Amino acid sequence: MDVKLYFLEKGNGEPFILLHGNGEDCTYFSHQIEYFSKKFRVIAVDTRGHGKSPRGTAPFTIEQFSGDLNGLMDQLKLSNAIILGFSDGANIAMKFALKYPQRVKALILNGGNLNSRGVKPSVQLPIEIGYRISSLFPKAKLKTELLGLMVNEPNITTGELSQINAPTLVICGTKDMIKDSHTREIAHNITNSRLSIIKGSHFIASEEYEAFNKEVSAFLQTI
Predict the structure, then answer these.
(1) In this structure, how many other beta carbons lie within 10 angstroms of the beta carbon of residue 18?
(2) Could you tell me how far CA 133 lies from the centroid of its own chain?
(3) Contact assessment for residue 81 and residue 57, using Cβ atoms and an 8 Å cutoff
(4) Which 3-state string (H, E, C) describes the chain?
(5) Please, how many CA atoms are within 13 Å of residue 150, restricted to the half-sphere of its CB?
(6) Ordered mean pLDDT values, 10 residues apiece, the chain (223 residues)
(7) Second label for 79, Cα 20 to 30 Å away, from 105, 130, 132, 158?
(8) Which residues are paired to 133 by β-bridges?
(9) Crossing angle, helix 141-152 and helix 121-134, to 10 degrees?
């Protein structure tokens, strides 16, 4: 790993890793860090090139981010962990579970997608236009890379999803930017999964945190 990832850590007990979305940082999970640290060792990570983590020189891809997470778990001497990912963080979590299944005790996938077609056109089209414009300006490299993740990634197949064996909660908002049918497809193709849809937008962990935390807690009691 060519970068040392920044992370916030709070609490004791079983490791519980939080992965934020595109263009964000670990502080997105302020309501989860406080809440879950009462029972778990919460580790909220800044992804490569996000927050306080350096960009480094390795590829800026979901695959690379999953490798970075594996390196962080080595650094912290964690054999496995519960992993909660939001948006691109959920995509990282899926890639990670496919590549390092032995390191995943349970998954919480909030607002993830298998490919760009899973995003509602009203959201995806402006992203794709922004990506094309940004790519014309060399000084906007990081912005182009961030938008590129939402245009070109993560390209996970339903066949790959069926290989995930960890207990999984797929959770989203009623007005999520991910198509409802796409979220249901993810839940349907992960063997040991349950689906929860709560009132709210894509950002339920931040905006509807009480309902979100309650659903996640109920799931964790079943693993």
Answers:
(1) 25
(2) 26
(3) no
(4) CCCCCCEEEECCCEEEEEECCCCCCHHHHHHHHHHHCCCEEEEEECCCCCCCCCCCCCCCCHHHHHHHHHHHHHHCCCCCEEEEEECHHHHHHHHHHHHCHHHEEEEEEECCCCCHHHECHHHHHHHHHHHHHHCCCHHHHHHHHHHHHHHHCCCCCHHHHCCCCCCEEEEEECCCCECHHHHHHHHHHCCCEEEEEECCCCCHHHHCHHHHHHHHHHHHCCC
(5) 24
(6) 93 98 98 98 98 96 98 98 98 98 98 98 98 96 96 97 97 98 98 98 98 98 95
(7) 158
(8) none
(9) 140
- The pair of structure tokens assigned to 83 is 């992993």
pLDDT at res. 61: 98
- Kindly report the pTM of this predicted structure: 0.98
Q: Let me know how long the chain is.
A: 223
- Structural domains of the chain, ranges and CATH numbers in brackets: 7-220 (3.40.50.1820)
Residue closest to 131 by CA, chosen among 117, 147, 115: 147
What is the β-pairing status of strands 14-19 and 40-45?
parallel
